[in-house]
Amino acid sequence: MSETSQPFTPSSTAGHLLGLLVQSPDLDALLTKLAHLAGEVVTPAAVCGITIRRDGRPFSPAVSDPLAAQLDQVQYVTDEGPCLDALRGGSVVVVDDLSHEDRWDEYRPAAIAYGVVGSLSLPLIVEGERLGALNLYSTTATAFTGPLREQAEGFAVQATDALTLTMRQIRQAQLQDQLAQAVVSSSVIDQAIGILMAEQRCTAATAFDLLRQASQNRNRKLRDIAGDLITRVSGTPPQPRPAFRAAAVEAPSLPNQQ
Prior knowledge:
By secondary structure, this protein is an alpha+beta fold. It has eight helices and five strands.
């Protein structure tokens, strides 16, 4: 466990987190940098692991030290421990001295064997959803009390704010991608409808019904059926609709004034 020369203040921590938002291109990169920064927030420094839940199962996408990964994994295997309690209950779980604990019969002896005595698990709640937990482990008893606990909890609040902004950016990017895909699909289907209208001499509604029936009969997406039709007729895969360009209009000349 490394030691920092100067303790982090709330303002300096906020500055670090703001820098992480700018530097980290995705959620996993941000979580990794958060784990390393969290390990230095408390004094003496602790090791940190971040637990999140994906597809209903907890795992550690980021740790500041291999020891944190081992302690997190023990909890996942035994299905018990402070980080899982924080994740599931949404409350802070503090352990002053594992040797005096009576919780977690399987996790406790394994953690002690790794030399860990105290821990602090802080839930990461993003927009009402329990996204994960930030877990600090120490080889010192009562490491997370008084100002040190307040400092760690303050960091967790700021980390949650950073995660909230990141999740919003991710969801916005996903929405934009979905809209772009919808526009492309609509363009391909419109082109296929035009082809069928010309070939079958039918209305747009009838042409769409023909596409839909082919999609259902072949158990394929409507856009894929439309794309096959365009490729058969044109000899090339469907191309995106060209951007609209307004024709340049020459300004009328003014009559010569005498």
